Every structure is written in structure tokens, then in C-alpha cells.
Amino acid sequence: MSKVTSNPDDYATAYDPDFSYELDNRLILKWYPQRVAQKMLSGSLLELGIGHGYSTREFAKIASDYVVLEGSCRVIKNFRDNNPDLNSISIIHTYFEEYECDEAFDNIVMGFVLEHVDDPVTIIRKYKKCMNEQGRMFITVPNSESMHRRVGKLSDMLDDLESLSDADLQLGHQRYFNVAKIRQLANECGLKVISEEGLFLKALTTSQLESLQLSEEIFSGFMKLGVDYPELSAALLVELAHE
Predict the structure, then answer these.
(1) Which domain covers residue 237, as residue numbers?
(2) How does pLDDT run across 65-88, given as a tens digit for each residue?
(3) Residues with Cβ < 8 Å from 232, sequence gap 6 or more?
(4) Which of 112, 163, 102 is nearest to 138 (CA)?
(5) Terminal Cα distance for the chain, rounded
(6) For residue 27, is it within any domain?
(7) CA distance linking residue 132 with residue 114, whole number of Å
(8) 232 phi/psi in degrees, rounded to 5
(9) Cα–Cα distance between 143 and 232 in angstroms, integer?
(10) Pairing state of beta strands 235-242 and 90-93?
């Protein structure tokens, strides 16, 4: 079990609407739950983290037995205050490293979790034990090799594709992933990749995109295009199962 080294409440302000990367959050965090919902098995769901609550609202529509784990009291309060119609959802205040499953779930979702934790291998192996034999695990992570980061490096705006930005640090990120790394991580944990796709084919920085005042239709196109180009997308979605 990995050691908890920080308090999730320390990073809760990064989930406020005025966060500088709210565009990315709005696009990706509303999109990926819809993609996961299309792949999920019918039955129970264990989700790690509430974040902005986009995924929680989406999964509440379809999961028959739904449990959410969250380490930040502030994030839980914000969600409860803003979603009084979803008070029936079981939200457990706990660190991911400390929670002990007392049932096996059909689906486990880790939406943008592994970039935060001290030891991703420990987390995946722990929650693999909480997954039914025929179950599915869905993981989303930021991609270090996205198009906009590659362009940033080639134009000397970014020293290293793995570099963490000020926004990453504000969010409590510890690392990036890429397609090869997430495949290796799955293999190391004894899981097989069922499907993988990209989230948001992002060609420019957030501030550059905002300055263009693009329509929602254009952003929708970027989201749809990213599905087939995980290596170039801002984030990755992988679906895993027991070997």
C-alpha cells in the first residue's frame, strides 16, 4: 500500500470554474464518461474520485449499484451542494490506498487518478482485486506525447515531454503517461487491454485555442477525431480486463 503524502483538499481549488484549464476540463471530463458508458458492463460500478462531478452525474444514470471513493472533504461537499438530486449516490470519504473492498464490482473507473498517486502499480493491483472475473477497469490519464506537447517541444516552448506545468502541480499531478507506458503498466499488473482511444486531439495550447473563439461544433470534432488517434491526443482512455 503506497504512502499518502498529501491532503487532496490542498488541490481542491484547481477544480473551481475559474481554473486556467477549465476548457480542457469541460471538454474531456464531459466526453470520457460518455465513452466509458458505451463500453461498461451492466451491473455495479466503483469509481475512484469525484473531481468536477461530470462522470458521477453520467454514471448515476446507468449504474445499478454505484459507489464513489473520494479523499477530499471539500470536493464531496461541493458535489453534494451542487447535486441535491443525487444524494442517493454512495460517496465514501477515504484515500484510495486505504479503502478495503467488501464486494466485487462489474466495472471500476479511474478517471484521471493515476497521475496523482504515489504508486500507480499498487493502486491498479489493489483495485484489480475488487473487480469481478469478467469485469472491466477503465482508466484515463494525461498523455505526454499529445500533439500540442510535441509541437511545444519542437518549437522550444517545452524542454521535455514529461515536464509538469504549473497547472499540473496545482492539480497535484506527479507524472504523465503515454500509450506505451499505460500498456506496460497494464501488463505489469496482470491485465489485458481490451480497447484504447484518445481524448481530445489538441493541436495548440489552451490559451491559443481560447483566443481563436472556436465553436462548440469544432471542439466536438476534436473530441471525435481523438478517438482514433490516442498517440496524439491530450489524454488516453483504456479498457482493461483480467488476463
Answers:
(1) 8-242
(2) 999 999 999 999 999 999 999 988
(3) 145, 146, 147, 150, 198, 201, 226
(4) 112
(5) 23
(6) yes
(7) 21
(8) -110, -5
(9) 8
(10) unpaired
In the chain, the number of structural domains is 1
**Residue 158 pLDDT exceeds 50:** yes
Predicted TM-score of the model (pTM): 0.91
d(CA 75, CA 53): 9
Strands 191-199 and 131-142: unpaired
Other beta carbons within 10 Å of 172: 16
Q: What is the pLDDT of residue 167?
A: 84
CATH assignment of the domain containing 100: 3.40.50.150
For the chain, the average pLDDT equals 92
Residue 38 counted as domain residue = yes
Spatial distance between the Cα atoms of 141 and 108, rounded to a whole number of angstroms: 15
Report residue 118 as a C-alpha cell. Answer: 504515489
Angstrom distance (rounded) from CA 223 to CA 232: 12
Question: For residue 23, what are the contacts with CB-CB under 8 A and spacing of at least 6?
Answer: 206, 209, 210
Interacting residues of 100 by C-beta distance below 8 A, sequence separation 6+: none
Q: Do the Cβ atoms of 197 and 223 come closer than 8 Å?
A: no
Q: What is the pLDDT of residue 166?
A: 86
Nine-digit cell at 199? Answer: 481524448
Residues in the chain: 243
Q: What is the pLDDT of residue 1?
A: 29
Indicate if the pLDDT at residue 20 is higher than 70: no
Alpha-helical runs (H) found in the chain: 22-39, 54-59, 73-82, 120-128, 147-154, 166-171, 179-188, 206-212, 216-226
Place of cell 524542454: 159
Summarised one tens digit per residue, pLDDT across range 138-157 is 999 999 999 999 999 999 99
Asked whether residue 100 is assigned to any structural domain, the reply reads: yes
Residue 144 located in a structural domain: yes
